[in-house]
Specification:
alpha/beta, Protein-Tyrosine Phosphatase, Chain A, 8-stranded mixed beta sheet, 22% strand, disordered C terminus
């Protein structure tokens, strides 16, 4: 079938999907195009001519992508990005198709895409990016991705022959290992952080040497297996860090760090929570510097960036505030708990665990969450399609909680239980987060924008 016809059929499917209320068109057009014209992603790759940045990793893709776009957009013409977060190849295609004119030509001059880890090899081969970012590798949906070493092996094979600039998290041993043998690699990381790893944070997925398999020795561990390390057999060590941060303060709404690269220095005051967002910012800064941006300009562009949807955004309902913090794997959940405890928080919690396709069917990861360290909430309400699994886990952690399986009922009751003038935290998995946002759509405002 002719390429132009496929593009227009895909555009039509997007319009029909939105008209019928069956979705926002962020995936269906790409799915249609993939079925009718395999290889269409490569067609768009030729048009972009390598002016593409791909961001992948377990956690932080959406926020890092937004930061990079914010830092690069001024003066660089239109930058195409998958703002809705649809990061499989069908999502990339949908974004590209939506940007084409009637002749099938892209309007954008460059693109910055977040990419699902499993989809990264295909996206890389088709789009031939000029720069790549790998944020971290944690256990996540083993039923989809498999073990980390297998995933890392696939990533390394793809990167092996590239001339692209590869930006890697030097504090993640497995990610840092991906840079061995590459000629154009840059590392980001932290020298110090104002946090300590949770006592029950056992989700260290890559704490052995990727070269010899012996245990890594850590000088400092910030969370999971992220920190400053070296091989006990001297076969591997943390690389020289090109963009380094020193984090002095983190909370549920902000983080403060000193950033240094070469002789350039800057203060970074993010309106985003936790240490994990500092790492996202370091990745974005590294990419932007390689693109020719000045450190001070980059920091100015990203420091006031609001949270991405579901990632710490605040919802106002009357005199009550709700903060949504997406949790989808042990490491991400532990980072939320770590930040919650640093602030000495007592806010009530609504935890929502679903097991739909986008969440992953396997919820055994709940047993690797450091619930035992969660001290102080005024109340915990458990809900979601796997509410009983969550309840069992909370019971073994010796935490007091209430159970409300139906999410709409749970959310309504949770809001009613929050005293006027106070804040409640909602910790949902991905599809639960989407459902909560839909439920709040008619009654809440996020910042200045309707949900």
């Amino acid at each position: 079938m002719p390429t132009i016809l496929v593009i227009w059929l895909a555009k039509l499917s997007s319009g029909l999907s939105q008209l019928l209320g069956r979705g926002d068109g962020s995936a269906l057009p790409g799915l249609v195009a993939e079925r009718l014209r395999p290889g269409l992603l490569e067609y768009f790759g030729h048009q972009l001519d390598g002016k593409v940045t791909l961001i992948t990793g377990t956690n932080g893709k959406t926020t890092t992508t937004r930061m990079i776009v914010a830092a690069l957009e001024t003066g660089n013409g239109k930058i195409l990005t998958n703002r809705a977060g649809s990061n499989l190849t069908r999502g990339l295609l949908s974004t590209l198709i939506a940007d084409t004119n009637w002749r099938g030509q892209l309007q954008a001059e460059s693109a910055v895409f977040e990419v699902d880890e499993a989809s990264f090899p295909e996206a890389f081969r088709s789009l031939k990016p000029s720069s790549v970012v790998i944020l971290n590798l944690f256990r996540d949906q083993l039923d989809r991705y498999g073990e980390l070493n297998t995933l890392a092996g696939k990533l390394k094979a793809v990167l092996g022959q590239t001339k692209a600039t590869v930006v890697l998290n030097g504090d993640d041993p497995l990610v840092a290992w991906l840079g061995q043998g590459l000629s154009n690699v840059r590392f980001f990381g932290l020298d110090k952080a104002a946090v300590k790893k949770l006592p029950h944070d056992f989700a260290a997925d890559s704490n052995t040497c990727p070269v010899c398999g012996r245990a890594l020795v850590y000088d400092e561990v910030y969370y999971a297996h992220i920190g400053r390390y070296h091989c006990s057999n001297k076969d591997f060590k943390r690389p020289l860090i090109n963009v380094v941060g020193t984090t002095t303060e983190v909370s549920l709404s902000t983080s403060t760090s000193d950033i240094k690269t070469g002789s350039a220095k800057a203060d970074l005051n993010l309106k985003l929570p936790g240490l994990y967002n500092v790492y996202n910012a370091l990745a974005a800064i590294t990419v932007s510097i390689e693109a020719g941006r000045d450190l001070s300009d980059i920091v100015m562009m990203i420091r006031t960036m609001p949270p991405a949807f579901g990632r710490a955004e605040v919802v106002e309902i009357g005199r009550r505030r709700l903060q949504l913090l997406l949790v989808k794997n042990p490491t991400g959940f532990n980072q939320v708990i770590q930040t919650y405890l640093i602030e000495g928080a007592k806010q009530p919690l609504l935890i929502l665990v679903n097991d739909l396709i986008a969440d992953g069917r396997d919820v055994s990861w709940l047993w690797d969450v450091a619930f035992e360290d969660l001290d102080g909430p005024k109340q915990i309400l458990a809900s979601g399609t796997r509410a009983y699994d969550l309840a069992l886990r909370l019971k073994y952690a010796d935490l007091k909680f209430k159970l409300a399986v139906d999410i709409p009922d749970a959310l309504e009751g949770f809001i009613a239980s929050i005293p006027a003038g106070e804040t409640g935290l909602i910790l949902p998995t991905y599809t639960a987060m989407l459902g909560v946002r839909r439920q709040l759509a008619d009654i809440a405002t996020v910042g200045e924008t309707r949900l």
